[in-house]
Amino acid sequence: MSYEPPTPPANLPTEIVNTLNESDPEQLRAVATYAEALAEHKEREARLEEEADQDEMEERPDNLPDDVPTKATITIKEINDNRYYYWQWREDKKVTSKYKGPVNPDE
Prior knowledge:
A hairpin with a 2-residue loop joins β2 (82-91) and β3. This protein has helices at 14-21, 25-59; strands at residues 73-79, 82-91, 94-102. The longest helix has 35 residues, at 25-59. It starts with 13 loop residues before the first helix and ends in a 5-residue tail after the last strand. It folds into 2 domains: 14-59; 62-107, no CATH class. A 3-stranded antiparallel beta sheet has the order 1-2-3, with no helix packed on it. It has 2 helices and 3 strands. The model has no long low-confidence stretch (mean pLDDT 85). Residues 41-72 are annotated as: Disordered.
C-alpha cells in the first residue's frame, strides 16, 4: 500500500473531490457503498427502459402512423351517415383521435 493519496478520476467534478478529501474514513466507506448501489440502480433502470423501448418497437403494427402511440385502438365514428376509422388513445384525462380512413362497406 502506498503512502501517497490516490489520484481522483479526471472526470470527477472538483467539488466532489474536495468533499471526499474532507471526509473521514467512515463517511468515505458509506459514500462508496451508496455510490455502488446507486450505480447498480441506474444501470438496472437504463436496462429496463431499453428493454421497454425494444418491446414497443417489436409490438408496433406496420400500419400505425409514427405520431400515434402503440396503445391506440381503432374506433368507428359515424358522421353524416358515413362511417370512418379513427385511431384513438388517452393522453392523461383527454381522449385523442386521428383520422385513419373510411370504413369499407364490403368488410
